[in-house]
Specification:
This protein is α+β, with helices and mostly antiparallel strands. The chain has two domains: about 1-155 and about 330-335, 3-Layer(aba) Sandwich (Aminopeptidase), CATH 3.40.630.30; about 160-310, Aminopeptidase (3-Layer(aba) Sandwich), CATH 3.40.630. Helices cover about 40% and strands about 30% of the residues. It has eleven helices and 14 strands. It has helices at about 15-20, 35-45, 100-115, 135-145, 165-170, 175-190, 205-220, 220-225, 230-245, 290-305, 315-320, and strands at about 1-5, 50-60, 65-75, 80-85, 95, 125-130, 150-155, 160, 195-200, 250-255, 260-270, 270-280, 310, 330-335. The strands form two sheets. Strands 1, 2, 3, 4, 5, 6, 7 and 14 form an eight-stranded mixed β-sheet that branches. Strands 8-13-12-11-10-9 form a six-stranded mixed β-sheet. β3 (about 65-75) and β4 (about 80-85) form a beta hairpin. α2 (about 35-45) runs antiparallel to α9 (about 230-245) and α6 crosses α10 (about 290-305). The chain is elongated and about 70 Å long.
């Protein structure tokens, strides 16, 4: 097994990277080449200043066996190696390696990180690992064997819905009060005095203006307005653009009387819908456009054979009202 320390994403090809990801332990959109290379360009939309790229690949018999997408930064008083994408805007992260190759890849990777003269680090600080990832147990075993300190904690819940074969079956599986509320709001939108429609953006020529509108809807929320720095706007735009080009962007709007009333920026990837961000026109708040559009998206996902609707990180109440249940993303720290 031969390891290479890369100083630029261009040293690895996107096709080879994404082919390995498709067979890896955590095939998620936040580990795609186009997403992580974009994240690195903007340093997470300005989240990090002055990090050092520590992108590492392993090959065996000429084939790509594993990728450790890492960077080095000062974090909580330590020189920490962290997963590219950390922390705030990439909901799931992991090593990129097939399950059968993980034990020996991780063991050799830790040897390489320890011996690599270009890296001055004291800890591994890995955020947003899925609680189902085999990396957790394997990293603990390796740490114990080396006498390194290992700690693991739940970082955030990440609610999701397993989707059945039809929308009525989905509705029958959630709390009766919430089921009636969803139906009532959908019925009011469809039969009321206002003209209501919704659509998914499919025209690349209009994508830029549609993203302008989406960011404007986001900025109506004072907390999101503060979040939307110029660097973060660039990050969202670039991430959406590369996702569109790769075929897994799902940007949807609900329109009331000719005005965009709510929007969701999602990823449609791996037969799952990943709800990434949302925006709302508060002038139409009484018509619950966010709820209605979410119901339309759930129905669309079911009708188009998607198996899961992932609300991703955060415990906002509406996720559970739609029937989501928790799984978690973890934070793991290793100190040598």
């Amino acid at each position: 097994m031969e390891f290479t320390f890369h100083k630029d994403f261009s040293e690895l090809g996107p096709k080879e990277w994404n082919n390995l990801l498709a067979e890896s332990i955590s095939d998620v959109p936040f580990l795609r080449y186009e997403y992580l290379s974009t994240w690195w360009m903007t340093r997470g939309g300005g989240e990090w200043e002055g990090p050092q790229l520590a992108l590492i690949s392993a090959r065996e018999n000429g084939g790509l066996l594993g990728i450790a997408p890492l960077f080095l930064a000062k974090h909580k008083g330590q020189k920490a190696l962290m997963l590219i994408g950390s922390i705030e805007i990439s909901d799931y992260l992991d090593l990129i390696v097939r399950g059968g190759d993980l034990p020996r890849f991780l063991s050799k990777l830790l040897d390489f990180l320890t011996s690599e003269s270009n890296l001055d680090w004291t800890s591994l600080d890995l955020y947003n690992l899925p609680d189902s990832s085999p990396t957790l147990a394997q990293l603990k075993a390796e740490s114990d064997e080396r006498g390194w300190a290992y700690s693991q904690e739940i970082y955030q819940p990440s609610p999701y819905i397993k989707l059945p074969g039809d929308f009525e079956t989905y509705l029958s599986g959630i709390v009766k009060k919430q089921r009636h509320e969803i139906r009532r709001k959908m019925r009011r939108a469809e039969t009321g005095e206002h003209k209501v429609s919704w659509y998914i953006v499919e025209d690349e020529a209009s994508l830029s203006s549609e993203l302008d509108d989406f960011l404007s809807l986001m900025a109506n929320d004072p907390h999101k307005q503060e979040f939307l720095t110029e660097a973060m706007r660039t990050q969202i735009r670039k991430s959406a653009q590369v996702a569109f080009e790769a075929g897994w962007l799902l940007l949807a709007f609900i329109v009331i009387d000719g005005q965009k009333a709510a929007g969701y920026l999602n990823f449609d990837y791996g037969n799952r819908i990943w709800l990434y961000n949302s925006g709302l026109n508060f002038n139409y708040k009484d018509l619950s456009p966010g709820w209605v559009l979410l119901a339309y998206l759930l129905r669309w996902a079911i009708e188009n054979g998607r198996t899961e609707f992932d609300f991703m990180r955060g415990d906002e109440p509406h996720k559970y009202r739609f029937g989501a249940v928790d799984r978690n993303v973890m934070r793991v720290r290793v100190e040598r």
